[in-house]
Amino acid sequence: MNDQNKPEDKKGGVNPAVAAVAGAVVGAAAVGIAGVAVLANKNSRKKAEKAIDAAKDKIDDLKENVEGKIEEGKEKVEKVITAVKDASKDVVKAAQ
């Protein structure tokens, strides 16, 4: 009878999922510590705030640009749909 608590022929090492989670936690902690260090300095905090504000402005500009492109696309699709409807009506009339 084998002892079930006794490891048998284990290759050793750490479960990959556990290693991934541990790596993510360590990485997140490092980023958090670096962020706190940056924000602790007033000049660095001001630079970070300016960078965030600039990013917000860029995102707003991109959003407006994308919305404009979507509207242009909608208008083009409506024109194509209208043209197809008109063409199909002409085909039906010609077939009758």
Describe the SSE topology.
Blueprint: H1 16-40, H2 42-95
Walk me through what this model shows.
The N and C termini lie far apart (89 Å). Helix content is 82%, strand content 0%. It contains 2 helices and no strands. It has 96 residues and is mostly helical.
Which keywords apply here?
about 100 residues, mainly alpha, about 80% helix
Distance between the termini: 89 Å
Arithmetic mean pLDDT = 77
- Give the number of DSSP strands: 0
Structural class: mainly alpha
CA-atom Rg in angstroms:
31 Å
Q: What share of the residues does DSSP label as strand, in percent?
A: under 5%
Helix % is: over 70%
Based on CA inertia axes, which overall geometry fits? elongated
Number of helices: 2
Return the string of H and E elements.
HH
| Structural domains: how many | 1
Note the main sheet: none
Query: Ranges with pLDDT <50 over ≥5 residues?
Result: none
Short characterization:
The longest helix is centred in the C-terminal third of the chain and has 54 residues, at 42-95. The chain is mainly alpha-helical and 96 residues long. The chain has helices at 16-40, 42-95.
